[in-house]
Design brief:
The chain is an alpha/beta fold and 320 residues long. It has ten helices and eight strands. Helices cover 39% and strands 18% of the residues.
Length: 320
């Protein structure tokens, strides 16, 4: 395991390990879902609510052959006639999570960014492998753009974003939207995104494991999402963004990750490729940050800086 010397982050990680002995395992995905949903609900119950946000659920026409996609809209209770919007995609290794689990985060972003947040309830693997989740996200994005007048959204100021697998879906969505040419995206917010299906080395004497999101979970998540063994030929860039041959023409991008996160190197490499392709890109690597540290150690100095920097950059992109 990578050493974490930041006392605030180390204490938060120790608290997580005490609360979840042995960590979260994807050996039994239904059981993992139940556990994570219960854990998230308990954490939300202890957190103060965020007032001044109006929520409403909508349904977008789904992809061909698929069901409608539920989208939860969050907007400031007092707002101007037109606001920018952020399509938010929750994390969970492509197999866990839901819109409910990100309610507080979405409310907070609606207030902090003074914008409309549209949170997507995409289908999960392994029951619904690629391309179902990314097509659900595209359906939600298209609905958001098509409903701009009704929702009071500026269609030229729509951003996309997500954390972990949600960041991976956002990265794939950025490529998909670019290639389909139907919707202009103003910005993409990629928070420790899960984007490289070839990052498969398992823990061993010479390969330290990573906190919270382990190497074994990463392999299980990719297997479930791809519906085949990861790391081989023929994997779509819309599933694993690092597979993209051409990353030019993407919107301005933020990528943030911790130095002990399993996704650190793939995130750095992708950011470098975006820069080389002329995409305005902010890359931020936070010392000792582990996967999800902004949630488990939200009061730490590092997490506060991490979140504040994201919000500052997204607000600048959306409001000018």
């Amino acid at each position: 395991m990578y050493p974490i010397s930041d006392p605030q982050l180390a204490a938060a990680l120790a608290g997580f390990e005490q609360m979840v002995p042995g960590g979260i395992s994807l050996d039994d995905i239904p059981a993992a879902r139940k556990f994570v949903d219960e854990l998230t609900a308990a954490m939300v119950a202890e957190a103060p609510d965020i007032p001044g946000v109006v929520m409403s659920d909508h349904h977008a026409p789904g992809p061909e052959g698929g069901p409608d996609v539920m989208i939860r809209i969050y907007q400031p209770g007092t707002r101007p006639d037109t606001l920018p919007a952020l399509l938010w995609i929750h994390g969970g290794g492509y197999v866990l999570g839901n819109v409910d689990g990100d309610d507080l985060r979405a409310k907070g972003m609606a207030v902090t960014l003074n914008c409309v947040i549209a949170s997507v309830e995409y289908r999960l693997a392994p029951e619904h492998p690629f391309p179902a989740p990314i097509e659900d996200c595209y359906s939600a994005l298209k609905w958001l753009a098509d409903s701009a007048a009704e929702l009071g959204i500026d269609p030229k100021r729509i951003a996309i974003g997500g954390a972990s697998a949600g960041g991976g879906l956002a990265a794939g969505l950025g490529l998909l939207a670019r290639d389909r040419g139907e919707i202009d995206i103003a910005y993409q917010l990629l928070i420790y995104p899960m984007i490289d299906d070839t990052n498969l080395a398992q823990a061993g004497p010479d390969t330290p494991d990573t906190p919270v999101w382990t190497r074994a979970n990463n392999l299980a998540g990719w297997r479930a999402y791809l519906g085949q063994e990861p790391g081989g030929d023929g994997i779509s860039a819309y599933a694993a963004a690092t597979r993209a041959q051409d990353v030019g023409g993407l919107p301005p991008t933020y990528i943030g990750v911790g130095s002990t996160d399993l996704f650190r190197d793939e995130n750095i490499t992708y950011a470098q490729r975006l820069m080389q392709a002329g995409v305005p890109t902010e890359l931020h690597v936070y010392a000792h940050g582990f996967h999800g540290f902004d949630g488990f150690a939200s009061e730490s100095d590092t997490a506060q800086r991490f979140t504040a920097e994201q919000m500052r950059l997204v607000a600048r992109a959306l409001h000018g």
